[in-house]
Amino acid sequence: MLKIVSDDAERDDLSSSLDELVAEGARRMLMAGLEAEVADYIERHQELVDEEGHRLVVRNGRAEERSLVTGAGLLPVRAPRINDRRNGHRFSSYILPRYARRSPKVADVLPVLYLRGLSTGDFAPALTEFFGTDTGLSATSIGRLLETWGDEYTAFESRDLSGDDYVYLWADGVHFRIRLEEDRLCCLVVIGVKADGSKELLACADGYRESGESWADLLRDLKNRGMTAPMVAVGDGALGFWSALGDVFPTTGEQRCWVHKTANILDALPKRLHRQAKAAIHDIYQSETRADAQAEIDEFVAIYGDKYPKAVAKLTKDRDVLLTFYDFPAAHWTHLRTTNPIESTFATVRARTRVTKGAGTRRRGLVMAYKLLDAAQDRWRKVNSPELVALVRASIELKDGIQIERKNQGSRDAA
């Protein structure tokens, strides 16, 4: 037993020594960088002298010690100073700005932890464990961040969209609680795919139960700010969005989300049939050609139609708009069959609202949802074969995801 205690104590000492070693190494590297930065600045201005021949830019000792919160812990730093006697000039370190008290990466921790579900009152004890201090990392900091995010959201709602071409569109309505209101917030979200294949958040707005009027207002706003009609929009079966899309962008194709459709069909079937039916639905949208998919739908109808007409009707009433993706490159089918980019991102919204029991106001809920989606954009990858997106906008002809090769007139004449 004594040996075990001794081993544990040795491990603790080793862990402590390792942390101290890392922190000291980080401090020395930081000081070396600051010294090099100062030396370079002085060297670039060494020829500048006053009337008496004295240099205008010289070293001026060191600043008072300050503590810097970094990923390596709390580092004590005495930064070198420069005396720049030229009018209107003042040295400012790029590595360590004048009033910096924490590294930018540490500052990034605040919104991430808040949005992921850490309550503001838990910040001080939680972050002290990691950084050795709660300086600048308090609940008050989060309050200021929320105000800043509100301003960002206002700018986001009014930004110009005419500079980009959005070829694909995902749309969905996501509901979550508002603590101080009886009704849940219906957040209308739109994500677009630009001509270079990258994804971008286009809208995050308050809607009323995904009504047609709410979606129409949102789509008209996007159009008024310069967005052109996308080639296809992907969404679930909510009638409000599709009626609004037909009014605002009548040329845009419709693709129903297979994830939502699968859930709706299974709801109309006994639970004992779910695995079998789900596999059959999977075979439909994974078919290599539209004809094969139509044949799989007919087989589903034959198997389930007599006993479960409601389940079959949910499939057959949308059979054409469920197969729209066959008109687009096969490499893009996996992206066009579902609204997964929205659904997966909003898992973090639900986690956040569970911890806080919902945002306090509708505005606060929208701002939080916007910031989550905005933060997620950094992790969104381009669609597969992004170079094909521009060809889609150019209206190339495709059959079952493959471009149709046209023989030129000369070849036809020779034949």
**What about the largest sheet?**
5 strands, mixed
Cross-sheet strand order for the largest sheet: 7-6-5-8-9
What is the radius of gyration? 30 Å
The number of domains is 3
The N- and C-terminal alpha carbons lie at a distance of 93 Å
Our count of helices gives 17
DSSP summary, beta strand count? 11
Average per-residue pLDDT, rounded, comes to 81
The global form is: elongated
Structural class: alpha+beta
Give helix and strand order, one letter per element, not per position: HEEEEHHHEEEHEHEHHHHHHHHHHEEH
Weakly predicted, low-confidence segments: 1-5, 409-415
**Percentage of residues assigned to helices:** 40-55%
How large is the share of residues in beta strands? 15-25%
List the helices and strands and how they pair.
Layout (H helix, E strand, L loop, with lengths): L1 H43 L12 E6 L3 E5 L2 E5 L2 E5 L19 H13 L6 H9 L7 H20 L7 E11 L8 E10 L4 E9 L4 H13 L7 E4 L3 H10 L4 E4 L1 H10 L6 H12 L4 H15 L4 H8 L2 H4 L10 H4 L3 H6 L1 H10 L5 H15 L10 H7 L4 E2 L2 E2 L5 H6 L1
Parallel strand pairs: 5-8, 8-9
Antiparallel strand pairs: 1-4, 2-3, 5-6, 6-7, 10-11
